[in-house]
Write the structure tokens for this entry.
Amino acid sequence: MHLTRRYFLQSTGALAAYLGVAPVLGWPHTLRPLSPRPVAKGRTLVVLFLRGGADGLNLVVPHGDPGYQLLRKTIALGAPGQPEGVLDLDGFFGLHPRLAGIVPLFESGLAVAAHAVGYDKNSRSHFEEQDVWETGVVGNTVNSDGWVNRHLVTSQGHGPLRAVSIGDTLPRIMRGKATALAIRGLEDLTLKTKRADPAQVATALEHAYCQHKEEHVGPALDLLAQTARTTLDGLEELRSMSAQEYKPAAPYPDTPLAKKLMQVARLIKGDVGLEVAEVDLGGWDTHSAQGGAAGQMGNLAQQVGDALAAFVKDLGDRIDDTTVVTLSDFGRTAAENGTGGTDHGWANCMLVMGGGVARASAAAARNAPARKVVAKWPGLLPEQLHDGRDLLHTTDFRDVLGELVRVHLGNAEFAKVIPGHEFKEVGVVA
């Protein structure tokens, strides 16, 4: 029987409506067998991408900066202690009031915010900046795979399901030569067919992805067979888990993000070797009617805070080996615009929480109080703004990503995961 890529997807039950399967394979002669070192066993990084450009100045609010209230006449959040005011963290920074669910995580040392984060070539374009944050490469992102996929290529895991995105399509951050899966949800999977032979599937993959048959060589076919086997192992794990009822240890709110994070918790507790999970939450492009404590921005903040709080409770002790990080396209303008919103800006904040943060907090507490916000704050007065309009970046986002890959995931090849960058310590995880 002639096996095609379509038959491969059908025979494994991986129909496009339910499952997106990578690898995105290169030409056979470009594939080289690697001998990567194992990563830290049992560790998981959860990437929450806030798509659209979240307003970091109203998520982690510099209420102690004299420029904050001056720049935001209608959308500024009130001072701590006022009705619907900022939830104070350290006397200078505070959280949006609808992020109340994660305040206990900051108080316990389980969460930290990195602020004034970005890089110096921000184009303010959604498409370009999502590519940069997902590839970890500045310039030439068209030919770059995702930094999560480079992590998979440069290291050895401990199970068949190393990287999973909860969604309809595989995001750029996970695309590349290594196997990564995109699933809508375990309940949607219908993997009922018998397991195919890895050699047959390798042949199908070879036929589907390669055009020059005369260039096929032994090592390339070996790697194709290995990739097929890894994919099938992952699908088998998903099929097994989808047949079992999941009872979370804590209730989740009935929101899209919470449902996705519950799937991630299920995979983590299922011990399938998951190292990186990615989930999206869109809607952050608040050009008008952004609101302060209420409104579009407030509703999104509530969804994030409540979902993350439930996720951490559900994981229980497993949070010790799990770290969550938020990414977004860019920050937003420091001043509100004429329609009660904010436009595409520059630097932003990143929320980081989990066991890696707790270890860093404990280490810092030996010498000084644990930091709730890590920032070299540039200020919001007119002369302190980038181009007179934006929060200036003082921490490169690649330093945060590199630290998560190196310290939390234990990948010694982090410089290959985030290439072309001279790393500086941030201290968000240990």
